[in-house]
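Record 1 of the preview.
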Amino acid sequence: MNPVKTIIRRIRKTFPQNSNRFFKRVSGIIHVGANEGQESALYARFGLPVIWIEPNPVVFAILEKNIHQRKDQRAIKGLVTDIDDKEYEFHLANNKGESSSILEMNLHKEVWPQVHYEKTVLLRSDTLPSLLSKHQVDLNHYNMLIMDTQGSELMVLKGAEPILTHFQLIKTEVPDFESYKGCCQLQDIESFLVARGYKEVYRNQFAARQGGGAYYDIIYQKLK
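->
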């Protein structure tokens, strides 16, 4: 696979067209790992209120600018993990921050060799319930959780467990190999969510590693 084409595909990807049908069931979205809010127009097309959460202070300013005319979309600056008020080294990546993470890169470099960290900043964390409570977000308006936090998605889920039942749909980006050192992998997300009454209802592979392994967007639905 041509690595340049892979990077372009990653930057441009939002939701594959055939996954948009799920938005008909959505009342609102909590999007953790917002980056620049690339999906804002898509969400607006479905008339969905959105809470965007982004820790990168540089990217956050761009996010606010990109959504400032969307009255139902709001940006919150915060690093979401499974623990409150813990200091993390947050590594800022050179691809407009898309690959930024609290984790060190591992096999990610084999898929996107041009991507690297440029600098590191210190950030303090919140769990998702704590952060939403601080900003007086009414969860009754949001029934879908979307995560793109570059390897720490399971931490987000563990921290969000007290409010997890609010989400009928959960979408995550996840690899089935160690893209980042110690990152969660597909089987980890699957085990956690299945044990809490969710099932996979959609999967899209959007990148592959030549030595084996792939990246996926996966949607889970809460069983009734």
